[in-house]
Amino acid sequence: MTAEKPQTPTITEYADFLEATRASYDAIAPAYTEAFSDWPAESNPLDRSVVAAFAELARDHAPAPTADLGSGPGTITAHLHALGLPVFGVDLSPRMVALARRAHPELRFHVGSMTSLDLPDETLGGILALYSIIHVPDDHLPTTFAEFHRVLRPGAPLLLGFQSGDTEDRLHLTERFGQEIALDYHWRTPETVTGALTKAGLRLQARVLREPQDEEKRPRAFVLARKAA
Ligand SMILES: C[S@@+](CC[C@H](N)C(=O)[O-])C[C@H]1O[C@@H](n2cnc3c(N)ncnc32)[C@H](O)[C@@H]1O
Predict the structure, then answer these.
(1) CATH no. for residue 160?
(2) In what residue span(s) does the Methyltransferase domain sit (predicted)?
């Protein structure tokens, strides 16, 4: 008799998109961490300059901390720390958080969701979210951006980074790094994202669209906004 391989639930069998995203990143956390742990050295100079500009704006609000939302392995959190920002990371995946803590024991990382932040009103000096709003479906984006607006101090900056693409062109992956997953990727243009940010009361400061380099399939978008002072 051959043992049956346990079936990974498909996305519809998870309670919701958060549970599916959490389980997927828990499954790939070690491989993802190994693949993407050298961001400062391997990232595009333009991306680094946008992050450096954000760090300079957020430093004006120190000692109020900056939150790296969807911090993954914590590499970019550590980069912000090296740029002189008081910063901590928040990630949906407990395994990602454990790996980030192990790699960066001097920094704080919490398990949590950007869709419902366990943070008091107007306490953050900045929010950075790189390649993490791509896992938030369109109908949850207004609540998420309302959360960002709620926790930011007046005048504090927000930087979002994401692959630019058509909303219709959603990607669903069932495998990555050899692991079974159930992960949705929601592509959006900078215009779609800035429209939603503006509706949440945030003020647009800059949009950067960089062409894909090397293995990248889609342009990289950065949107810098701030809460009104
Ligand atoms: C593509 S990785 C990006 C990691 C890191 N920001 C980077 O650029 O290297 C996306 C990360 O966002 C996290 N994530 C996805 N949805 C989230 C949510 N609702 N709240 C917090 N983190 C989330 C995932 O667990 C994962 O670690």
Answers:
(1) 3.40.50.150
(2) 68-155
Q: What is the pLDDT of residues 5-50, one digit of tens each?
A: 445 555 456 779 999 999 999 999 999 999 988 887 788 999 999 9
In a domain, 187, yes or no: no
Cα of 1 from ligand 1 centre, angstroms: 41
Residue 114 amino acid letter: M
User: What total number of domains does the chain contain?
Assistant: 1
pLDDT in tens, 118-135: 999 999 999 999 999 999
How many whole angstroms separate alpha carbon 181 and alpha carbon 87? Answer: 30
- CB distance 155 to 227 below 8 Å: yes
In a domain, 182, yes or no: no
Q: Whose CA is nearest to atom 20 of ligand 1?
A: 113
Q: Could you give the CA distance from residue 113 to residue 93 in angstroms, rounded to a whole number?
A: 9
Lining ligand 1 with CB less than 6 A are 18, 21, 25, 36, 69-72, 75-76, 90-93, 96, 113-115, 130-132, 135-136
In a domain, 57, yes or no: yes
